[in-house]
């Protein structure tokens, strides 16, 4: 029973939310002509509900719309049947369902407010696109494909200087990995090939200037990450090729900036109180803002630039 409840909960949430505005019967005023697609125990499912679901299907071909609309109404009927059964068993009063409905409502209302408040993002000008292109040669005129070897090391802050020193003293990364194993520092090795645009922007300028065979060290939330530039190949991109991507990026940046400004404005007008064990949340906005990046070690602040020069000696034979 628990497994079924978990499986159908998202389905029930959608159906229960959709059912909030449904009416059985009602007055003539309430029953103005609507296009009814189906009825479940007297509850109407409308064409507008079908169209809303169809709009959320990406890249729907017109030739497929008829078949898709039939499948959508079947899904809505399935949801409504289950939602009605859930309500008959008072599942709509279950604390888990109530909390999920509340969370979904809050998210939807916040997103709708921002969408309507901000509107469609303005198209960046050609001058803005060109300026971005010229300021980021590592992404365009000097764009590279990078083959990286990485070694993620778990270590407390007080041990990291010794680890750095050992890395500079090691002849190869394999020697360094053996030392880590002997010292019982957990480490995980990996290798990946990525173009410049898929790398963390905080590290890309340094990687773009590094010769093949060199390395850098960056701090992570639980230790250090050694990144070795095994090799790279230059694959430049022209302004014409880059224009659509730059335009989208500038639009996203402008929208994020406007969204933050609107959020800050609304919060400034609100009375916000953090209680009990959450009292510190109101005192550390910077920590809250950066919490989402903790899972991206490579985006952490880089170690001093001297690391790259010092370490290059120790990993020059890796290619």
Output the CATH class name of the domain at 143-238 and 298-315.
Alpha Beta
CATH topology description of the domain at 143-238 and 298-315: Chitinase A, domain 3
Strand order of the largest sheet: 4-3-6-5
**Mean pLDDT value:** 81
The main sheet comes to: 4 strands, antiparallel
Helix count, DSSP H or I runs of 4 or more residues: 11
> N-to-C SSE series?
HEEHHHHEHHEHEEHHH
Terminus-to-terminus distance? 56 Å
CATH architecture tag of the domain at 143-238 and 298-315: Roll
Shape: extended
Strand residue content: 5-15%
Number of strands: 6
Topology (elements, then pairings):
Blueprint: H1 2-18, E1 36-40, E2 43-46, H2 47-55, H3 65-88, H4 95-118, H5 126-135, E3 144-154, H6 160-169, H7 173-182, E4 187-195, H8 204-209, E5 215-220, E6 223-234, H9 239-269, H10 285-290, H11 306-315
Antiparallel strand pairs: 1-2, 3-4, 3-6, 5-6
Helix pairs in contact: 1-3, 1-4, 2-3, 5-9, 6-7, 6-11
Characterization of the model:
This protein has 319 residues and is an alpha+beta fold. The protein starts with a helix and ends with a helix. Strands 4-3-6-5 form a four-stranded antiparallel beta sheet. A two-stranded antiparallel sheet has the order 1-2. The chain has eleven helices and six strands. Helix 2 (47-55) crosses helix 3, helix 5 (126-135) crosses helix 9 and helix 6 crosses helix 11 (306-315). Among the domains are: 2-22 and 33-118, no CATH class; 143-238 and 298-315, Roll (Chitinase A, domain 3). The chain is extended. It has helices spanning 2-18, 47-55, 65-88, 95-118, 126-135, 160-169, 173-182, 204-209, 239-269, 285-290, 306-315, and strands at residues 36-40, 43-46, 144-154, 187-195, 215-220, 223-234. Residues 1-9, 18-32 and 286-319 have low confidence and may be disordered.
């Amino acid at each position: 029973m628990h497994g079924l409840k978990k499986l159908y909960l998202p389905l029930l949430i959608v159906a229960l939310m959709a059912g909030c505005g449904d009416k059985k019967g009602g007055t003539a005023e309430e029953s103005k002509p609507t296009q009814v697609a189906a009825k479940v125990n007297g509850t109407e499912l409308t064409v507008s509900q079908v169209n809303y679901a169809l709009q959320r299907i990406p890249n729907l071909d017109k030739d497929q719309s008829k078949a898709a609309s039939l499948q959508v109404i079947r899904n809505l009927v399935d949801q409504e049947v289950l939602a009605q059964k859930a309500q008959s068993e008072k599942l709509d009063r279950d604390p888990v369902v109530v909390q999920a409905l509340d969370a979904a409502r809050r998210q939807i209302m916040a997103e709708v407010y921002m969408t309507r408040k901000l509107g469609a993002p303005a198209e960046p000008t050609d001058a803005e696109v060109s300026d971005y292109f010229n300021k980021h040669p590592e992404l365009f005129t000097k764009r590279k494909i990078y083959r990286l070897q990485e070694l993620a090391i778990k270590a407390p802050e007080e041990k990291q200087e010794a680890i750095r020193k050992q890395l500079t003293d090691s002849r190869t990364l394999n020697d360094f990995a053996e030392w880590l194993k002997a010292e019982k520092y957990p480490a995980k090795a990996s290798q990946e090939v990525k173009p410049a645009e898929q790398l963390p922007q905080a590290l890309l300028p340094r990687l773009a200037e590094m010769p093949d065979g060199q390395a850098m060290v960056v701090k992570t939330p639980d230790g250090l990450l050694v990144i070795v530039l095994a090799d790279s190949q230059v694959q430049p991109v022209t302004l014409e090729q880059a224009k659509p991507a730059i335009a989208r990026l500038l639009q996203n940046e402008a929208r994020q900036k406007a969204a933050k400004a609107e959020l800050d404005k609304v919060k400034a007008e609100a009375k916000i109180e953090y209680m009990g064990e959450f009292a510190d949340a109101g005192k550390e906005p910077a920590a809250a803002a950066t919490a989402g990046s903790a899972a991206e070690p490579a985006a952490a602040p880089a170690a001093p630039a001297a690391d790259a020069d010092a370490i290059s000696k120790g990993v020059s034979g890796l290619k």
